């Protein structure tokens, strides 16, 4: 555990009606998990919010005159090596918009009325613009926040981090606050590491990033993930390339095309959708609709027909009604997933969704989760079953539990069990699939079937 961040001071000046008083209280609520406690002394505040009102005469001019005073306090703090963030919220913010920042450049951000739940995102962005990380006190939750390498490295497969951070600000997620903005490692560094892994016997590399398909090669002339994959596929020994996790927004045509013609790029894509309801997707700030996601999947399958699709889903997001949940089930039927990860919405204080109305009862979440899991399980089983009778190239990774057995992976990331000699670990071998279970396949070496 790192030392707790020092408390930050928040000063809110509220103008006007009872509605604004209420909003100011909510702002204090959503900011407290980011480490802000109230102060009544603006001169010592780390964050000053003017929650404005338009009704009274000369309201706008009053706000500008107040901002002039606060700007002097900001300058005084800067002279002492401290910072101050100035936010204008409420009706004047609505009416004046960006004009406020033009007239008073000391203002860092402008938030419309009832948009207090956007404050964490706006503040995180303004800190980033100054090159600072918001040292929020989000308790990490392994299953949501940690870029998890769920598969143990075996010597034959390896993970390689190529990108970190997130600029998407999904309203349920802490990652943009805790991990900072999107950042890509230089392609040359990644290539050097991949060469060294290949020299140690690695045949399959999984490129990791919170938003891996936003990879842009940092200093390397904006090379995208497709360019990186093509580059790595040239390395002798690197036979398989995977990547995770992707955002639908960054799934560009060059990457889709690479799935069609780059043999090393495996036909498995983890592309979280979270919900099938456009209303919920909007509230989640996902920047895609159910339809645009389904169209994207169609495009990907047009490039690579046998692409296995995996996803992440959240049930019980605030405001999710039965009809929204039904839309999620419909999307699942339209896409047909090979595998998936499902979550009950969990309130993360400090994220915008935690302050949203319409929080869903736990029993309702449980019931929806069970129905969603049942459908996804059915699809996963059907997908596995569809491989029976096929011959799949399997990269053997390690000995299995039974004598003489090896375990490997199909191109679609399914675990495959087969009786095979130990020297086949590290080789890609054709296996005829004979049986399918929910989580794995079993088969026999196809070579053993054909007489020499
Ligand atoms: N509640 C539920 N699920 C969450 N995830 C992230 N944050 C939350 C939350 N607050 C899920 C999303 C994401 C995955 C890694 O974890 O589905 O894609
Ligand atoms: Fe979180 Fe959304 Fe970023 Fe994924 S894309 S890390 S869910 S904010």
Overall description:
This protein has 452 residues and is of the alpha/beta class. It folds into three domains: 8-138, Rossmann fold, CATH 3.40.50; 142-385, pyruvate-formate lyase- activating enzyme; 391-449, Nucleic acid-binding proteins (OB fold (Dihydrolipoamide Acetyltransferase, E2P), Beta Barrel). Helices cover 35% and strands 21% of the residues. The strands form five sheets. It has a five-stranded parallel sheet with strand order 2-1-3-4-5, with helices on both faces. The chain has a five-stranded mixed beta barrel with strand order 14-15-16-18-17. Helix 13 (322-335) runs parallel beside helix 14 (362-385). The chain starts with 7 loop residues before the first strand and ends with a helix. The model has no long low-confidence stretch (mean pLDDT 90). Bound molecules: 5'-deoxyadenosine and iron/sulfur cluster. The site of iron/sulfur cluster has 10 residues, from helix 7.
Briefly characterize the structure.
This protein is of the alpha/beta class.
Estimate what percentage of residues fall within beta strands: 15-25%
Shape: elongated
For the report, how would you describe the main beta sheet?
A: 5 strands, parallel
Low-confidence stretches: none
Number of contiguous helices: 15
The total of beta strands comes to: 18
Could you please say which CATH topology of the largest domain applies here?
Answer: pyruvate-formate lyase- activating enzyme
Straight-line distance between termini: 60 Å
- As laid out across the biggest beta sheet, the strand order is 2-1-3-4-5
Round the mean pLDDT to the nearest integer and report it. 90
